[in-house]
Specification:
- The structure is a single chain.
- The chain is flat.
- It has no helices and eleven strands.
- It starts with a strand and ends with a strand.
- It has one domain.
Length: 99
């Protein structure tokens, strides 16, 4: 399914830029063609920062990730399309921490 991007925001190699090529800093939302949210994230200086939520086209949550200026940092969870949690992990400075 093709996605509709937030106006004037370009994602390239894991970094987000505005239409002038400057690093993007704000909330970023990407939509499916059916207008359901695909990605909802906070971006700072072009990098994911804070919580990022990914959704299935049905609108159900797929993943919740936490970043610190582009690096995996914090609790991550993933669910299947039936809403059953299939994995969880904790990251500290990009490295999986704990079980």
């Amino acid at each position: 399914m093709v996605s509709l991007a937030q106006t004037n925001v370009i994602e390239r190699d894991g970094k987000y830029y505005d239409s002038n090529g400057n690093p993007y800093s704000r909330r970023y939302t990407l939509y499916y063609n059916n207008e359901n949210i695909k990605v909802d994230a906070t971006i700072a200086n072009g990098l994911p920062n804070g919580e990022m939520k990914l959704f299935y086209s049905t609108g159900k949550i797929q993943e919740i990730r936490t970043y610190s200026l582009g690096e995996k940092d914090g609790y991550w969870e993933k669910w299947n399309e039936k809403g059953i949690k299939v994995s969880e992990a904790n990251f500290v400075k990009c490295k999986k921490h704990g079980k």
